[in-house]
Amino acid sequence: MNKILYIILIVFLALTTGSGIWNFIIEFKIGSEIYKLDSYISWFLVANITAFIGSILLLKYYYDRNYRFAFFTGVIVVITNLGYTTVLYIALTSGELRSYYMPALLLNLCAIIVYAVVLIFSNTRKRFWLKLAGICGLVIGLVLVSALIGGMYPKNVWIISMLGKIAQWSSIGCYLVNVIFIMNFVGEFRTLKTENANISRQKFLAGILGILAIAAVVFTITIGKLLVNESDSQYDWRKDTAVQAQRLVWLAGGARTFVDNEGDSLHYLLIKPPAGSSVPLEPQPMSASR
After folding, report:
1. Rg of the chain in Å (alpha carbons)
2. Is 287's pLDDT higher than 50?
3. Which helix (H) or strand (E) holds 10?
4. Are 216 and 17 in contact (CB under 8 A)?
5. I need a labelling partner for 171 at 20 to 30 A (CA). Which of 28, 140, 156, 202 fits?
6. Domain with 275 in it
């Protein structure tokens, strides 16, 4: 790999990291509503295509450096991640294959764990940053797998919620591992000889990838802005709705409960009509329970 390819690899890794963190921030802000935003599917595709190109460049790096074990396990990670991404995309767009989501995710995480172990113990261990990336990836992978598997069995709502939060916060670490990879490539870039950049085939490949990198930056920024605008609108709508709901409860004098002879209960709001109005307002049911 020449210097230009190093720069392009760093750009793709940085874009993947930035889009992942940005996605986490928006999801933290509005929750699962992010998946219902009009621009989310476009954002999802751009982010994953960018990550895929970055992964291919990383595999090329392993191959050129003769890191064979890292290369082959990296290929497995790319394949399993592609399968997981496909399942998630179909689930988001059509609602199908949802039962395959968890198996695909666990398979991908297991592949990542094996890949991380290889980075720690194979010849990549001679590179400090690569070994550190393996250690961090192993810890994050084990935490995620434990949280996901643990969340399948407990019936305690608090435990499930806690495990979900652990998985959510740990997932962002996967993107931060890219920062460690970037540190490795920046260090190698500084010591790379400039004459390696004169190979014609390398220059042609660098040109194609350079165009893709520019396109990735443009699409990431453009669609990212749309996602932010939609998420802000969604957040404001939820906040206004909550305020209106509280105001409605206040106008009604608080929620009331009707209980019949059999013990069935009905929670409702009784809103009095404005003074001088001849239109009666019936009680508005809130929820029913037994």
Report:
1. 26
2. no
3. helix 3-30
4. no
5. 156
6. 252-289
Length of the chain (residues): 290
Residue 246 lies in a domain: no
Q: In what order do the strands lie in the sheet with 256-259?
A: 256-259, 265-269, 284-289
For the record, the structure tokens of 101 come out as 């989501």
Same domain, 7 and 147: yes
Same domain, 212 and 284: no
Residue whose C-alpha is closest to residue 71's, from 53, 58, 80: 58
- Helix (H, G, I), strand (E, B), or coil: what is residue 9? helix
* pLDDT-based confidence at residue 286 (cuts at 50, 70, 90): very low
Encoded tokens for 88: 């998630």
DSSP assigned state of 3: H
What are the pLDDT digits (tens) for 32-63?
888 888 899 999 999 999 999 999 999 999 99
Find how far residue 269's CA is from the centre of its chain.
40
Asked if residues 141 and 113 have their Cβ atoms less than 8 Å apart, the reply is yes
**Is 45 within the bounds of a domain?**
yes
- Give me the number of domains the chain comprises: 2
Which run of H or of E encompasses 11?
helix 3-30
